[in-house]
Amino acid sequence: MQGVITKEKKAVSLRQKEIVTDYIQKLDNYVAALKQGTEDRVLEIAEFADMLHIHPTHLSNTVKEVTGRSSCSLFEERLVKVSKEMLLESRASIKEIAIQLTYDPSNFTKFFKHFVGMTPKQFRIQNSDKI
Question: How far apart (Å, rounded) are the C-alpha atoms in residues 22 and 26?
Answer without folding.
Answer: 6
